[in-house]
Amino acid sequence: MTSLLEGAKKLVTRGTDIGARIEGLEAAVDAARGRLDDTVLDEVRNTVDRAAGRLRLSAEHTVVGIAGATGSGKSSTFNALTGLELSAVGVRRPTTSWATACVWGREGADELLEWLGIPPRHQTTRDSMLDTRRDDPDAHVLDGVVLLDLPDHDSTEVSHHLEVDRLVQLADLLIWVLDPQKYADAAIHDRYLAPLQTHDEVMLVVLNHIDSVPEERRQSMLDDVRRLLDADGLQRVPVIALSARTGAGVAELKAEIANRVAAKKMIRTRLEADLKAAATQLDELSGQGRTRVLPDNRVSDLEAALADAAGVPTVVDAVERSTRLRAGRATGWPVVSWLSRFKPDPLKRLHLDLGADGRQLTARARTSVPEATMVQRARVDTEIRALADDVSDGLGRPWVESIRGASISRLPDLNDRLDSALGGVDLGATRIPIWAGAVRFLQWVLILAALGGAGWTAALVASGTLGDAGTPKLAGVAAPLLLFVGGVALGVLLALVCRLLVGLTARARAEAADRRLRAAVHGVTNELVVEPLQAELVAYTTVRAGLAKALR
Q1: How confident is the model at residue 23 (pLDDT cuts 50, 70, 90)?
Q2: Which of 171, 232, 241, 278 could link 210 by a cystine bridge, Cβ 3.0 to 4.6 Å?
């Protein structure tokens, strides 16, 4: 496909932007794949491939297809234009499903005929008929024309109308031959003419067998054909009265074809019509709502709901209580602080302080945070739905469904990812503050001082010299006793002061843990919900930009 597009860019007629339309439509199809109806996308892709393929081929030849029903005189019209008896004429058509081609100017047409799928045995080069060219001095006006006589579109042979459908998509200019007795037949109006109303600039309508209609009725019949074409949305398609048998109108038809071919616009006009029709079809399917963005407040509300359901408040509370417990044990009065070892650590109860051995045992950190309640799960569902509804508001139904599907596509992984994310966060609660280590050292110094003072006092009491003049005193109080009482009092006082510092540290660490945990929740939310939604919005934006490029 890339080589086709590169070739298309090189061969685009100066002043056109067909290459850009092809690129835009191709980008739109690729972005819409898996989101919009594959049947429509395949049709649009085929249109892109056909357009790129046609641009790669001869721009000096214009493919003119003659189509009509059985008995309409389509083949006699073809013969009248070529001046040769190339197509069999009659009500009973040949059984072949191939079209017949007559080429004016063979050079450069071989590859085009191969692309059209016309077998060599059904090809004729008009330039080789020198004797006939002398009999037809106007033959040169069709130089550059590849004229196709298509099979009957109303044939009972399926292969016939399949071939018609195929070549109708490939011809640069279409000539529809109608019969005076069947010109209002719904088979051609409903199946071909009305659906091709976007291609009115590359179509002609011929009312053949005009010689079989009384002169006084001819104009009224042409007016009626005009009325039917207008009803089909083909107001700009000319109607030419013709008699292939008598030659009436043949010169006018040939001149119309020649004028259009000489203008060198048919290829471009046909391709633009094809691309615009395909882009319009995709545009209607996709919808034309403006591109949305994920609202920050909605994402924040979802993250808050997920954090609550994941147990972040529970973990943060456990961090604060664990910090109080551990720092309190380190800074408390050693005589009684050891009793705190019998209290359960909140983080260990949640399996958030397993250490290296625990991680190796379980392969990854697993938490025992309580499962989300029904209310919490309902809140998460509500927030996800609200986020999807917000970003899909005003978009076409396929995109609404695609966005909603993307929002919940990875929800089955949500619980495990949140649990893993929380288990991998460094809560910072296991490390004792530096100042707590200094306090612990000071507490033991005071304990040792108190024990030393107690032992010294006991020794003096035992020897009966506690109050003697030789006992060291400070402010009138025996130094051993002061050392004992002071060590105990200062240790208790220090423990009380540190309780305030421990509380401040616990709250600070809880706040830090809350930020880290919510950052982990943010990462999970972004990966499992936000990124899939953003991918859909990027795809929608790409489709809208591509269609705008194709439709401009």
Answers
A1: very high
A2: 241
How many angstroms separate the CA atoms of 150 and 144, rounded? 19
Confidence class for position 336, pLDDT limits 50, 70, 90 = low
Q: Residues 387, 536: contact at Cβ < 8 Å? A: no
Residue with tokens 């929380």: 422
CB hemisphere CA count around 181 (13 angstroms): 8
Cα(87)–Cα(78) distance, rounded to whole angstroms?
A: 7
Collect all residues with Cβ–Cβ distance below 8 Å to 471 and sequence separation of at least 6. 460, 465, 478, 479, 480
Collect all residues with Cβ–Cβ distance below 8 Å to 372 and sequence separation of at least 6: 309, 310, 311, 380
Q: Give alpha helix (H) positions in 33-129.
A: 38-56, 74-82, 110-116
Task: List C-alpha distances in Å: 513 to 218, 394, 531.
Answer: 92, 40, 25
Three-state secondary structure call for residue 147: strand
SS3 for 290-342 is CCCCCCHHHHHHHHHHHHHHHCHHHHHHHHHHHHHHHHHHHHCCHHHHHHHHH
Residue 205 has pLDDT above 90, yes or no: yes
Could you report the per-residue pLDDT of 266-324, keeping only the tens digit for each? Answer: 899 999 999 999 999 999 999 888 888 888 999 999 999 998 888 888 888 887 787 77
Residue appearing with tokens 């056109």: 16
SS3 assignment, position 100: strand
DSSP state of 536: H
Parallel, antiparallel, or unpaired for β 123-125 and 145-149?
unpaired
CATH match of 61-263 with 2.70.98.90: no
Question: Are the C-beta atoms of residues 78 and 66 closer than 8 Å to each other?
Answer: yes
- Cα separation, 314 vs 316, in Å, equals 6
What are the structural domain ranges in the chain?
Answer: 1-59+272-286, 61-263, 296-432+508-551
**Token pair for residue 176?**
């529809």
Task: Kindly give the pairing relationship between strand 473-474 and strand 477-478.
Answer: antiparallel
* CA–CA dist 466, 473 (Å, integer): 10
The mean pLDDT value of the chain amounts to 82
pTM given for the model:
0.75
pLDDT tens per residue across span 457-505: 777 777 766 666 556 666 666 677 777 777 787 878 877 777 788 778 7
Residue type at 283 in one-letter notation = D
H-type alpha helices, 87-214: 110-116, 130-135, 158-170, 186-188
